[in-house]
Amino acid sequence: MGPRAKTLDELAPLVAGEVVGDGAIMVSDVTHDSRQVAERALYVAIMGASSDGHLYVDEAVSRGAAAVCVTTPVTTRVPQLLVHDTRAALGPLSDSVHGSPSRALKVIGVTGTNGKTTVTHYCESIATSAGVPVGLIGTIETRIDGVAVASTRHTTPEASDFQRLLATMRDRGVTLVAAEVSSHALAFGRVSATRFEVAAFTNLSQDHLDFHGDMSSYRAAKQLLFTDYEIGTAVINIDDATGAEIAATRDADQVTVGRGGDVDFSNVVTTEGGSSFSMTTPWGAADLAAPVLGAFNVSNLMVAAACCMAAGIPFEDVTAGMREVRPVPGRFELVQGDQPYTVVVDYAHTPDGITAAVETARQLSPGKVIGLVGAGGDRDHAKRPQMGAAISSADVVVITSDNPRSEDPGTIVDQVVSGVVTDNELIVEVDRRKAIEAALGSAGPGDIVLVLGRGHEPYQAVGNQMVPFNDREVVMDLLGISERSADSGPVSGSMFS
Asked: The whole model's pTM is what?
């Protein structure tokens, strides 16, 4: 049993809980998943999206749970910790059992509609370049010093998994962690009890209203990171209206990024090789060239740089890392064989992200922009025609299926098409592979094809099945490009996700 094991009696006051049974029982792990219970674990029965964790108490105990945390007494042979809200208790319990790992780390938490994945990956890349042992937690995968340790079901794992990951990173010598913090995570308390050395905000635009209901509630969830958590420094993009509002409510311990901010950038010039720009910061100023595309993506890089400097990495090390920042899978990723046009795979799946993708493509190519999008099923319906409107600025518009989930793909496609306003060519093809083939077939020398919406995702959710489908691999197959010969280019990292 590790030195950080706690008794139920020690844990109860943290969550206003009542112990039923032997309060001296020791627990050395906390989990909300009965399938992950190991010896000496405390099983916390939370209400999930489709089931109640209290139904799995017997399974948890049979797997070796030392105790259970419940909202109402249950019949079981192990001690119980009774609390008012098990979900609210999950974070503090996990934090305590694992020795409050965030206090031994410099945790950078990044929230916002778009840019979370890119900013956290840039933070990881810059920190690695500076020789800082770093961990990454986010949409694509979880890594410790560049080595993948887990793929994540959620952008931000549940509280018990999140604290266990932080503890593992601490125990393996990591000193800085870059973590995506989604609005769902903030609403559900998945990062509760975490101390953030840096909390960053990228932007806010319409997304996830199927969950939050309206933009006001969505905005309020994002803002929780800056009002309900202990943070050292806030890094806020004030080029975004909501970011400017958040910054205006704070009077200390913040770094603003954007026009007129503490961290500013100007003279952005973008080519297919990357972007050059001038930057000024409280830590120094420099003229830089970095392998990222477009002003919005330079903004993401500046947010990441500000996070790293606020976390204590020297200016010279940060700028050196910016010059060689590593690409992010599926984030404005170039797929280049010997075809005479450019193909980009990107995760842009919001109206703002799609608009910015087309605008950036126009900066890169004098030819046509062919834009392909779809919309996910069982998600915000109101966003669908807006996505159609956003892609309308492309010279060729291709509307197809994304992750239909339980909905009819054709119905979703029709809803996206209803927002398209264009006199240019419109291609509607529900089959995503055929749609990508049609988009490629529309391209000529000097054109650029944008395959948007899914980015790095290796599966397409159709009904209750996860069907293998990777946009980059499909493009390569259609173009006859082998993995060895494929060139994702020196440029990557989306300003949209």
From this structure: 0.91
